[in-house]
Amino acid sequence: MHQIKYLYALILSLLLMPAAGCGNRGKTITVGMAILTTSHISILDGFKAGMAEYGYVDGKNIRYIYNGLLEDNPAAIDREIGNLLSQDVDLLLTGGNMVSLRAKKAVEGTDVPIIIGASSRPVEEGLVDSLQRPGGNITGVRTADSIPKMLELLAMVVPDKRKFYLPYNPDDQVSVVSLKGLAESAAKMGIELVIQEIRSVEEAVSSIKTLPRDIGAIYRLPSPTLDSRNSELTMAALERGLPIGSVLPLDESVLLVLASDPFATGRQAARLADLIIKGAKPADLPVETADAYLTVNLRTAKKLGIGISNDILALANNIIH
Q1: DSSP 27
Q2: Would the pLDDT of 13 be above 70?
Q3: Are the CB atoms for 179 and 287 separated by under 8 Å?
Q4: How far are the Cα atoms of 108, 231, 310 from residue 74, in angstroms, in the given order?
Q5: CATH of domain 14-142+262-290
Q6: Can you tell me the distance from the alpha carbon of 222 to that of 268, in angstroms, rounded to the nearest whole number?
Q7: In the beta sheet, which residues pair with residue 64?
Q8: Helix pair 74-85, 97-106: axis angle to 10 deg
Q9: Which of 90, 208, 217, 304 qualifies as a cystine partner to 236, CB 3.0-4.6 A?
Q10: CA 237: distance to chain centroid?
Q11: Do the domains 147-259+294-320 and 14-142+262-290 match in fold?
Q12: What is the pLDDT of residues 157-191, one digit of tens each?
């Protein structure tokens, strides 16, 4: 009789036990999502896919609040983050340095955790105290720092050219951060960066069309101003016979891309979110680094009449034929 009662109690306790990954004993988790650029949309998809793998079912034990891409200005970002916080979110998922910084400021004095879905240099930007001990309410995944390596790859593609054109908008904070130390790295490689301030896609396209003949390639850093319409820059570059190298996924005709995969980055961030939901403190969870993948577009190389060496092809994770 005692054994029967014990088995009954054990079965009942198992039935009442919450499924692993459901978080907070059956409570519906609310995640607010805030991103600035189109390149970060796949981060959200990857995050949702990752959370589903941990047992979080959208509409059942988790809900997502996402109201579209944010305007590229602090006031608009602050409004949206305030809107998300007013809906009692359990955590925020942010993409990019500016959004993450505004979110960090907004949650000061609260216990709302922030998961960075993508940040190029979180320590330098002041997002975290250190990668190992982020501090405060924030942790997440930083993108691989592939900025110096892309210079090296471009130099291998056009070995007889030592000048690269780099357009950027000084109002794009992520571009300003990405530029730090880049000129010095280029100089060590014997490369001259022609860095030009632009304020619009139209201005960048116009500049590409009139670049001097000694420019060998175009280098693209992250830029909310340019990213969503990069195909227009690529078209202008193809007309001039210039390859583009980028440190983030842009349009399909860019010759070289050395970047973290946004979907995989979001999926990686989901693991950290699951740990936080189960009780871990963001301050104690080290910021992780996403892997970098090299994509080589041989179709574009053919259009440009550029040969891609076996050394570069051996490094490629993805080759577009």
Answers
A1: P
A2: no
A3: no
A4: 17, 27, 45
A5: 3.40.50.2300
A6: 21
A7: 31
A8: 50
A9: 208
A10: 25
A11: yes
A12: 999 999 999 999 999 888 888 898 899 999 999 99
Instruction: Give the other-Cβ count within 10 Å of 206's Cβ.
Output: 12
Say if CB 217 and CB 245 are below 8 A apart.
Answer: yes
Buried b (16+ CB within 10 A) or exposed e, 259-295: bbbbbbbbbbbbbbbbbbbeeeebeebebbebebbbb
Q: Given the DSSP bridges, would you call strands 29-34 and 215-220 parallel, antiparallel or unpaired?
A: unpaired
pLDDT attached to residue 44: 97
pTM: 0.83
Who's near 14: CB < 8 A, 6+ residues apart? none
Q: Are 73 and 81 in contact (CB under 8 A)?
A: no
Measured at the CA of 181, the angle between CA 177 and CA 186, to 5 degrees, comes to 125
- How far apart (Å, rounded) are the C-alpha atoms in residues 280 and 193? 44
- The domain ranges of the chain are 14-142+262-290, 147-259+294-320
Residue 313 clears pLDDT 80, i.e. is over it: yes
- Packed helices 201-209 and 230-240: angle between N→C axes, nearest 10 degrees: 10
Q: What is the DSSP string of 51-90?
A: HHHTT--BTTTEEEEE--PPPSSHHHHHHHHHHHHTTT-S
CATH code of 147-259+294-320, in short, is: 3.40.50.2300
- Residue 235's pLDDT band (cuts 50, 70, 90): very high
Alpha carbon distances (Å) from 108 to 66, 70, 138: 22, 21, 11
CA angle 228, 232, 236 (to 5 degrees): 150
